[in-house]
Design brief:
Layout lengths: L3 E2 L14 H8 L10 H4 L20 E8 L2 E8 L10 H17 L3 E8 L7 H20 L4 E10 H8 L3 E4 L5 E2 L3 H8 L9 H8 L1 H6 L4 E3 L3 H9 L8 H17 L26 H5 L2 E2 L6 E3 L5 E4 L9 H14 L10 E6 L8 H5 L2 H17 L3 E6 L2 E3 H5 L7 E4 L4 E3 L3 H8 L3 H6 L11 H6 L5 E2 L5 H7 L1
Helix pairs in contact: 3-4, 4-5, 4-14, 5-14, 10-12, 10-14, 12-14
Length: 477
């Protein structure tokens, strides 16, 4: 995937120092930039920031526009890292979602994302995570419909924003940009300096930096100038390959990457085989899964007896990392994609985990791409007629919930379920907010409270179920 784009130095002008509107104007044909529509041109300041003493910004940190590039019509979104690190608040993410929905109707030559974001805005965690998850689903539905999506990372891109960027058809970084799901300080906080010293710039760059990502074949690398960016965009025209072909090809590429690392069982003769889970099914769900039939041999995918209703595996104490995401996708592609009766098939994506894998090894293989691919496989199933639902049975944490259960058309939850964007101590470190105050808000605050009822209040949970009775689940869908 590595490819370097350069340009004539006499024509170069760096994108990174520019503001988001200036970046759009720089890559667009002269005089072609215009509003997308009245709704997306309207001010969208966040209503959630005043409580933290933060003055909201009118565009909530993202500029959207229509333009032409090389004469071809494009829709563009540019994130503003100067405002709260480019974090995606609820209104920011809703603007992205709106842009993708317009593109689905208008079918431009491409949608271009000029990415620079630290991920979900933790000051407004519940509505922000929900809105960005919906934007991710809309982006993938757009790709499934044949509209090309290009992500050019002109600033650092982390968290859910990294998953969104990696969900594009093509992704490129300028040399100074970094990409990852868990930032260096997060990994150090969880595992200690022996895992990663966040103060060691060289070690951080080797793991997250654009040159290292490109050398590993994970992204494309382009010079930080306008001419190089325009050349890269011009080469990003629509692919003639069907969406299913591209998803299956990406799955094989990600399998090969895992097979080349010690984190994957290289002894397996078939790199497409499904690795067994490393943690047991949560004890409270053992009777539920006992009533189902495992269909893939290792228990990643289960089926309701006598019904075209499938369930993915909950991991409880386990994390969703590259290995697990790839195993899920292998099972889903083998048993649900391209089925003759897929218009009757229903899939429950069960969420209960310790979150996404926040380790050096996960970032080394670019976990963002595995999570994005998992969301893309779910989008493929949706496009093929499979009805996909989320089922939150325990802990919905971070990117493991964002790219998994939240990609369902509807999400159901048990009363005891919780949604956690990030732990209070980590939110405090990222945002600078008071950790003690954040801990006090964990149970009862609509924005930061983790009980599922708060997420439901924002529209993120469609129904709370008293139990997991199979007849009830079958009737729901």
């Amino acid at each position: 995937m590595c490819c370097a784009f350069v340009s004539d130095p006499a024509e170069s002008a760096a994108l990174r120092p520019l503001g988001p509107d200036e970046r759009i104007a720089a890559v667009a044909d002269a005089g072609s930039v215009a509003p997308v529509n009245a709704a997306l041109a309207a001010a969208r300041p966040s209503p959630h920031l005043v409580r933290w003493g933060i003055v909201p910004q009118e565009d909530d940190g993202v500029v959207v526009a229509r333009a032409t590039i090389g004469g071809a019509p494009v829709l563009v979104a540019a994130q503003d890292e100067r405002f709260l690190g480019g974090s995606a608040g609820a209104n920011h993410a809703t603007a992205l979602h709106g842009l993708f929905r317009v593109a689905l109707t208008e079918r431009p030559a491409a949608v271009l994302l000029l990415c620079a974001s630290g991920g979900v805005r933790l000051h407004e965690a519940n509505p922000a995570e929900l809105a960005l998850a919906r934007a991710l689903a809309a982006l993938l539905d757009l790709r499934a419909a044949g509209v090309r999506v290009l992500a050019l990372c002109v600033g650092d891109v982390f968290g859910g924003a990294a998953v969104l960027a990696c969900a594009a058809d093509r992704i490129a970084l300028v040399p100074a940009a970094r990409l990852g799901v868990s930032g260096p300080k997060v990994i150090e906080e969880i595992h200690g300096k022996s895992e990663l010293d966040a103060g060691d710039r060289a070690a951080v760059d080797v793991l997250f930096g654009a040159p290292a990502r490109a050398a590993a074949g994970q992204v494309e690398l382009i010079a930080d100038d306008v001419a190089a960016a325009r050349a890269w965009i011009a080469l990003g025209g629509a692919s003639s390959a069907p969406f299913v072909t591209r998803i299956r090809a990406a799955h094989e590429n990600l399998a090969a990457r895992l097979a080349a690392t010690s984190a994957f069982d290289a002894q397996r003769p078939n790199r497409m085989s499904i690795a067994p889970p490393v943690v047991p099914i949560p004890r409270q769900l053992s009777s539920f899964y006992a009533a189902l039939v495992p269909v893939d041999g290792n228990g990643w995918l289960w089926r309701m007896p006598g019904e075209p209703v499938w369930f993915t595996r909950a991991s409880g104490l386990g994390t969703l990392g590259p290995r697990e995401a790839h195993a899920f996708d292998t099972a889903l592609l083998a048993h649900l994609a391209d089925r003759g009766d897929r218009d009757r098939a229903r899939l429950f994506v069960v969420s209960d985990s310790a979150g996404h894998e926040s380790t050096r090894s996960a970032e080394a293989v670019c976990i963002a791409q595995y999570l994005a691919q998992h969301a893309a496989v779910l989008a493929l199933l949706r496009a093929q007629g499979v009805r996909v639902f989320g089922l939150l049975t325990g802990n919905g944490r971070g990117a493991a919930f964002f790219a998994n259960g939240l990609q369902g058309a509807k999400v159901f939850a048990l009363p005891s379920a919780r949604v956690t964007a990030m732990e209070p101590s980590a939110i405090a470190r990222v945002t600078g907010l008071d950790a003690a105050r954040l801990r006090e808000l964990t149970d009862d605050d609509p924005l930061l409270g983790t009980p599922a009822r708060h997420f439901a209040a924002w529209g993120g949970i469609d129904a709370t179920l008293p139990d997991l009775a199979l007849a009830r689940l079958a009737a729901l869908v």
